[in-house]
Amino acid sequence: KAGVTQTPRYLIKTRGQQVTLSCSPISGHRSVSWYQQTPGQGLQFLFEYFSETQRNKGNFPGRFSGRQFSNSRSEMNVSTLELGDSALYLCASSLGTSGRANRKYFGPGTRLTVT
Amino acid sequence: GQSLEQPSEVTAVEGAIVQINCTYQTSGFYGLSWYQQHDGGAPTFLSYNALDGLEETGRFSSFLSRSDSYGYLLLQELQMKDSASYFCAVRGNQAGTALIFGKGTTLSVSS
């Protein structure tokens, strides 16, 4: 079974631009979560989607948005990029959202650099 | 709100045993998970504890005490390849069904 894939793997943008990141979960997984990882801050939760519905949202500004499609693929968008948005963005899929079904399978991440 | 505390760094030598502690605060509790992340890699699942006690998976074990809001990851017979960051994570009520991670513990294993 193919793992979680994320595209693009690397991205360089300038301040003020917007960016869209894509995530394809493991086949059969209906839950997709997004995390931002920066040095020393661990994995900070952005959003969680289940069957096309946003279930939860982390403490990030409205510039961060996302969606999930009927095939469970997900995208996240960041508008009006700031230098502080430079980070590794990780997508994770899981079968469900409770118990052992909530076991996350992570993609390799998209490394975003904002200049 | 929801929070997790774990040490930022731990060092050990090959063959040793190391314990990484995690204390959490959350309203509602649905289990404690551990993930490993090597430099430049994606986090990978290690273990999950929903009930009190010890879960063993090869050289790794994980323990949970719900009354103390505390858990730990125990790594035995340490190898150089165990050098990585280790994250504890919980699902609680404040963030709905989202899995919230601690800031991670960097384990350095030397020969």
Percent helix range of chain A: under 10%
User: Helix count of chain B, per DSSP?
Assistant: 0
Task: State the secondary-structure class of chain B.
Answer: mainly beta
Distance between the termini of chain A: 37 Å
- Most extensive chain contact? A-B, 27 and 23 residues
Provide the succession of SSEs of chain B: EEEEEEEEEEE
The secondary-structure element order of chain A is EEEEEEEEEEE
Low-confidence stretches of chain A: none
Can you count the beta strands of chain B?
11
List the total number of helices of chain A.
0
Q: Describe the biggest sheet of chain B? A: 6 strands, mixed
The value of Rg of chain B in angstroms is 14 Å
Helix content of chain B: under 10%
* Total number of strands of chain A: 11
Shape of chain B: globular
Compute the average pLDDT of chain A. Answer: 94
User: Uncertain spans of chain B, ≥5 residues at pLDDT below 50?
Assistant: none
Keywords:
heterodimer; A: 115 residues; mainly beta; 4-stranded antiparallel sheet; globular; B: 111 residues; 6-stranded mixed sheet; 5-stranded antiparallel sheet; 0% helix
What features would you describe in this structure?
The complex is a heterodimer of chains A (115) and B (111). The model of chain A has no long low-confidence stretch (mean pLDDT 94). Chain A is an all-beta fold. The termini of chain A are far apart. Helix content of chain A is 0%, strand content 52%. Chain A has no helices and 11 strands. In chain B, a hairpin with a 7-residue loop joins strand 9 and strand 10. Chain B is globular. Chain B has no helices and 11 strands. In chain B, the strands form 2 sheets. In chain B, strands 2, 4, 5, 9, 10 and 11 form a 6-stranded mixed beta sheet that branches. Chain B has a 5-stranded antiparallel beta sheet with strand order 1-3-8-7-6, with no helix packed on it. Classes of the chains: A mainly beta (115), B mainly beta (111). The interface between A and B is medium-sized, with 27 and 23 residues.
